[in-house]
Please model this.
Amino acid sequence: MIIADKEITVEDIRKMLNEVVDPEIPVVTIADLGILRDVRKEEDKFIVILTPTYSGCPATDMISLSVHKKLRDNGIKNFHVVTQLSPAWTTEWMTEEGKAKLKRFGIAPPVGSSATEVLEKKHPRCPHCHSTDTVLVTAFGTTACKALFKCNDCREPFEYFKCH
Amino acid sequence: MEDTNIYEYTLMLADSSLIMGQRLSEWTGHGPILEFDIAITNIALDEIGQARLLYQFAAELKNKQEPGSKATEDTIAFLRDAWDFKNLQISELPNGDWGQSVLKIFFLAHWQRQMYGKLIYSPIKNLSDVAEKALKEVTYHVRWSSDWVRRLGDGTEESRGRMQKALEYLWPYTQEFFEPEGYEWDGIFENAGEDFFENMKIEWNKEVSLVLTEASLTLPESHTYMRKGGKKGLHTEHLGHLLAEMQFLQRAYPGCEW
Model:
């Protein structure tokens, strides 16, 4: 989609970026996850602010590339993507819609706040059978942002998106 | 001068993370069971991620100081020799068995939590930004490794024996954690008083002793010979071998990208 003959607004850019998804969890967008912090216009240039989730997350470079590609494909040339570390990304920035999408995808969304999270004491709702009789298997899952749990009711393992 | 101090301090943090990350990544595919393998390599990934952020800042400082030096995070990580590395010696030590590896993480993560916990108030924004992010990650490392130390220390006779042995091997390397080098003072911390490092050390000692006691492990005698020097580039024989492997590609094929 190339928007021609029209003044491009910040809102237009946001709409375009709403199509950029997380490469590892492709059901959620970078806006859902709170990685897309801001879009603003400085003079005639669009500034896109991204905040990485984990320092070593391999998706970070990929996300920045996807943003570049999305904007270029839409004919936007005058933009700058800034990676901002502070304030540090937190799961509290995740949208309710994002959490619902995660759950439908089979990943239990974060519960509570990162400051007080002790995974051993958590019982996130099983995304398969909704039971809360769940137990931690390991604090680190298949990606940096997740932990592995299992459900004592339906006996299925599942991933939990850690508070951060 | 001030910038040189910040540069060297940043390298000390970054090198400790990178070398630890590189060492732990040797566990990839070799963990006792799949879940533990994934956990320890996740920690390795966090360490390498933190190192990258710090090296990016170090490269910026280097290029400002020596215009034309064309430093990048990669040149700093891959083109320096062992004596240029300022990592804590504990990070370069061999992994040993699972118990020794988790105890290494346990000591280092507690040190990082103290350090980053102070650094979030640093007037140097690049450092405080990284610290804010890293603090969340190392908090998970602290919990995970503490859990393992308790489990193995307070486990079977075999696991307790191995943990005690690992403790005696690693303990001498913890002394240098809170002995500041010259570059660790100037302007890096907010309100660093005279007993700044001493207080961090007391805090660290309190935290690790608590877990070690719960794990029914015994701290080595206080007269044990303590190792130091990593922060100024003095290393064990293990670092050179690690670098030979880690840096091979960039040394053999300079500028190679994938």
